[in-house]
UniProtKB/TrEMBL annotation:
<dbReference type="GO" id="GO:0030170">
    <property type="term" value="F:pyridoxal phosphate binding"/>
</dbReference>
<dbReference type="GO" id="GO:0035348">
    <property type="term" value="P:acetyl-CoA transmembrane transport"/>
</dbReference>
<keyword id="KW-0472">Membrane</keyword>
<dbReference type="InterPro" id="IPR004752">
    <property type="entry name" value="AmpG_permease/AT-1"/>
</dbReference>
<dbReference type="InterPro" id="IPR024371">
    <property type="entry name" value="AcetylCoA_trans_1-like"/>
</dbReference>
<feature type="transmembrane region" description="Helical">
    <location>
        <begin position="303"/>
        <end position="325"/>
    </location>
</feature>
<protein>
    <submittedName>
        <fullName>MOCOS protein</fullName>
    </submittedName>
</protein>
<dbReference type="GO" id="GO:0016020">
    <property type="term" value="C:membrane"/>
</dbReference>
<keyword id="KW-1133">Transmembrane helix</keyword>
<dbReference type="GO" id="GO:0008521">
    <property type="term" value="F:acetyl-CoA transmembrane transporter activity"/>
</dbReference>
<dbReference type="InterPro" id="IPR011037">
    <property type="entry name" value="Pyrv_Knase-like_insert_dom_sf"/>
</dbReference>
<keyword id="KW-0812">Transmembrane</keyword>
<feature type="transmembrane region" description="Helical">
    <location>
        <begin position="331"/>
        <end position="352"/>
    </location>
</feature>
<feature type="transmembrane region" description="Helical">
    <location>
        <begin position="569"/>
        <end position="595"/>
    </location>
</feature>
<dbReference type="Pfam" id="PF13000">
    <property type="entry name" value="Acatn"/>
</dbReference>
<feature type="transmembrane region" description="Helical">
    <location>
        <begin position="615"/>
        <end position="634"/>
    </location>
</feature>
<dbReference type="Pfam" id="PF03473">
    <property type="entry name" value="MOSC"/>
</dbReference>
Length: 636
């Protein structure tokens, strides 16, 4: 039963100029995230129901002024009709390799005829003789589809397969009848095998309209959505590369800061600009809520606004940024708010991009776009640093700002034209996002297992920065592998594609972490060999090429791990389309937060056990978690 607030049990009668007026006791209930008001049916009904159900509850009656959007007289139903097609059921069975009965989705109208799979998602109306059925929207699915109707037992066979097949937990469409006044009963009845429905289907999706049926449009639409999402993540990568890599690196090169020993202090102050990304899990509660302006209810409209503001900010600051960095001393307190503003705009857009990605594409395809786009964008922005060897070339940074700003405006225009504001459906959730999100995290055991798994798996790479410091002391610096990073990109994209778009991602995640464990053991041997060898042998000898090879392979494996982890998070988010961005942001932020733990205690562990034993212990714990905890996630 829904939660009900019943405070009055009597009917009040008032007499005025218009005659007697009855005021029944009203109460509120919460259904499917909506607060609805109703008429309390009194203590007798409440007592009977409470006794029958074994918990306190009250009975409410819907009244005519109720603003709930359900079409019909019932509160419990979002709509009176739930429509699925046999073509959709067959496509789901073929795509998942499982024969899934229709009763798992509990439709009361099953359409059979010459149509493409999920054609019912695109019809505005169904015409069955004089009867018209208006589409209200998609049916978002929950874990109940995993319960076999005949046995009442949960088999986890449908929900994960549905998300993997469609990219989100949506199947079937809500419809409502549009009834003409005074229509006879024969025109208000829908029967199995209705001849008029068959005729309408032939007209709507027959051979004459095959070119415009959903199946013919789906590939083109998916390609456009993929290109847009990839462009968005390239833009985000550029923004992150500028804010968190290029600008801090150039700030360290400021001549005044270097001569006065202020480089570390300046970088520490500039780190405050990263706060928006650190609190992204809080920002999602703001950006995913519906605001008071109707034109900004959808993710697309919010993205267009953020991209436009970001583009203008980048173009306006392109010249002043160089001056701030080259001043003697650098204008650090002007840099912090500017970089912080850019980071905040990027963090807000990232939340919307994540939600929009799983709304439009399969979770694994969205994660691949994120990996490739961020890699390209960060590479474009951060590799610029290696070309800025003297103050005269600092104008290149201004060019990067201008290029990223124009890219931002171009994507905003493309997204606006692709999904106009008046036509884009509202994809965000109204008030109560935080309550819904916390409820999902509390109830979903697989999300909880994933967070525990991430807490332990992050031990696998906690030593990398400390090991890199020892390599730097030997002359094996990041500059020596910068060129190989560019060469690794196409190979990395291919391995990420193979790892992230086939089959069950968590099993391959376990194999990749086993690969990282092997790389950790190899790096212990290699670092020890380098420390015992003369410096000349590290320039072009065998140990140098082993260093390049280990770096190259680790990059490939870590990129594939990133794609798989994002794909798993996207699958969780796709199961709750209205708050997908919030779920993805919270899980990703938690994963990043757990990743910072090993770095905190690593210095103490290295001092106590030494670097080699610390790596061995952390690798062993992470490997144990990968082997034992992955099965608890179940099949998504």
């Amino acid at each position: 039963m829904a939660a009900v607030d019943g405070s009055r049990d009597i009917i009040e009668v008032s007499v005025g100029d218009q005659g007697p007026t009855l005021q029944a006791p009203d109460s509120t209930a919460r259904l499917f995230g909506d607060n609805v008001a109703g008429i309390d049916q009194g203590p007798e009904a409440a007592a009977w129901l409470s006794g029958a159900l074994g918990r306190p509850c009250r009975l409410l009656r819907r009244f005519a002024g109720c603003k709930r959007t359900a079409a019909g007289a019932h509160w419990a139903d979002i709509a009176p009709l739930l429509v699925v097609s046999t073509a959709s059921l067959q496509a789901l069975a073929e795509g998942t390799g499982k024969e899934i009965p229709a009763d798992r989705f509990r439709p009361n109208v099953i359409v059979e005829g010459p149509m493409e799979p999920h054609a019912e998602d695109t019809w505005d109306e169904m015409r069955i003789g004089p009867l018209r059925l208006q589409r209200l929207g998609p049916c978002a699915r929950c874990a109940i589809v995993d319960v076999a109707q005949g046995q009442g037992k949960r088999d986890n066979a449908v929900y994960g397969a549905l998300v993997q097949h469609r990219g989100q937990a949506v199947f079937g469409q809500y419809y409502r009848p549009i009834l003409a006044e005074g229509a006879p009963p024969s025109e208000r009845t829908l029967e199995a095998g209705h001849f008029a429905l068959a005729a309408w289907l032939r007209e709507e999706c027959g051979a004459a309209r095959a070119a415009s049926c959903p199946g013919a449009r789906s590939t083109r639409t998916a390609m456009l959505d993929t290109l847009l999402l990839l462009s968005l993540y390239i833009w985000e990568g550029c923004m992150q590369g500028i804010a968190f890599e290029t600008v801090p690196a150039l700030l360290r090169k400021n001549p005044w800061a270097v001569s006065n020993g202020q480089s570390d202090d300046n970088e520490r102050i500039l780190n405050y600009s990263e706060i928006p990304f650190q609190i992204k899990w809080l920002l999602c509660f703001v950006v995913e809520c519906k605001g008071p302006v109707r034109q900004f209810h959808s993710r697309e409209s919010k993205l267009v606004a953020l991209l436009f503001v970001s583009g203008c900010a980048l173009l306006a600051s392109s010249s002043s940024m160089v001056d701030m960095l080259m001043l003697q001393p650098p204008a650090i307190w002007s840099l912090v708010p500017l970089i912080g503003t850019l980071a905040a705009l990027t963090a807000l857009a990232d939340i919307l991009m994540d939600g929009w990605g799983v709304q439009r594409l399969r979770p694994d395809h969205a994660s691949l776009c994120q990996s490739v786009g961020l890699e390209l964008g960060i590479l474009f922005a951060s590799e610029v640093f290696f070309h800025l060897k003297d103050p005269a070339s600092m104008e290149l940074l201004s060019t990067v700002f201008k290029g990223t700003g124009m890219l931002s405006l171009a994507i905003a225009g493309g997204l606006f034209l692709r999904t106009p504001g008046h036509a884009a459906p509202a994809s965000t959730q109204g008030p109560g996002v935080m309550r819904q999100l916390l409820g999902v995290l509390w109830q979903d055991a697989r999300m909880q297992h994933y967070l525990w798994l991430q807490l332990l798996l992050k031990l696998m790479g906690g030593h990398v920065d400390f090991q890199r410091q020892r390599y730097d002391a030997l002359g094996l610096t990041p500059e020596k592998t910068a060129l190989y990073n560019i060469w690794a990109m196409p190979v990395s994209f291919c391995t990420a594609w193979l790892a992230g778009t086939t089959g069950w991602p968590a099993r391959r995640l376990r194999l990749l972490y086993i690969g990282l464990a092997i790389l950790n053991l190899a790096s212990i041997w290699h670092l020890g060999s380098c420390q015992a060898s003369p410096h000349d042998a590290l320039e072009t000898g065998r140990l140098y090429w082993v260093f390049v090879g280990l770096h190259f392979v680790r990059k490939l494996v870590e990129d594939a791990v990133f794609v798989l982890e994002v794909a798993i998070i996207n699958i969780f988010g796709a199961g709750h389309p209205l708050i997908a961005g919030s779920i993805i942001s919270v899980l990703a932020s938690a994963s990043n937060f757990f990743g910072s733990f090993p770095e905190q205690w690593m210095p103490t562990a290295i001092e106590s056990w030494g670097l080699e034993w610390t790596i061995l212990i952390h690798t062993g714990l992470a490997l144990l978690a990968a082997v034992l905890l992955v099965p608890f996630l179940g099949r998504l």
